[in-house]
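job 3f2a | input accepted
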Amino acid sequence: MTPDDTNATNKGINRDESLEQKDFDYDVALYLDKEQRYEMLEFERRGKLPEKINRSSDLFMKFLLGRKARTPLLLDLVNSIFGVLGHPKLKTIELSNIEMGPDNYNKKLVRFDIRGVDENGRQLNVELQKESHSHFISRCLFHWGKNYIQQLDAGKGYYELKPTIMISLLGFHLFKGEKQSVWDFMLINPKTGKILTQDELLIYVEMDKVYDSLKVLRDKLKANPDYKLTEDDRLSLWNGYIRNDEIGVEIMNEVAQRDPVFREVINTEARYWSSPENRYAQLVEQIAELDAKAMLDDAIERGMRIGIEQGIEKGKAEGKAEGKAEGKAEGKAEGKVEGKAEGKAEMVRNLIAYGISPEVIAQSAGLPIEQVRRMMNNI
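job 3f2a | predicted structure (379 res):
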């Protein structure tokens, strides 16, 4: 793709209005305005539309799991998670509006990936989070709280509040160094283990920790084609498929021949990818992600440059002052060392101010992650 192609694709596109599915129930084509449709047809003619599907894209995830006709697929994914964690399984899920408006004009609007209600009235939110950031947990708590409190209209009592469940499918390691890949959290007393309430339930699934389990599953299926999948197997397969893992997709296609849920997954993918509108939408989404990454890289580079420049100037000044008393040569050397150290510290402070994750900051500055976290806590 040429720069002109990229600029043309970005021109005049509003994903929220133009590239969202207009029909909640059926697999209708995406709505494109006249300019977008012309551009799509031109890309199709020139062979510029993507050839490979990105199963972890927001648009495909909502197409696969966010349609009323395919709630059995969402139910299977959620129940595989609940089965692994030992929670009672859901019987039904009824999809809800993914947008929750602000309480008043200056508050924040919340948009969920997939939102529903189970047979007991519990609020269920499922999101795909591909990238980590420093305030991810706070964001999860905010979204949980938003869904919990907006259950109450005027005149209703607190007894009508239903538990709210946040499920985050992660494309990164939230808990590094831990083999466990599925986590659940609720309000609990750390000393006695007594649960205060199950109204708050946060679940995290680290999808990229399943590679070894997929290889084991592939061997089991080769040894016994009639092998019955466990809950762990199903969740590993879902994770591998969503994150475009080659083994996961291979097993999904194989198992689909005898598993009605996974067969519908494969059939849905085929319907989705046969549409040039959906392939065009993926192209737009990919470019938006590249733009976001470019902005992040620019913020990191700018933070490093500003931090180093400020640190070196400060180091020079301190080195000069000390040099008068201890000798110019020694003052210059100390000023250089201190300048570099201060430059790094200033760089870290600038990156923190930009909201860059501690992992990215540590890697960029060449510092231990624990030191970066301490600096963040001291700001």
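job 3f2a | The longest helix spans residues 276-326.
job 3f2a | closed
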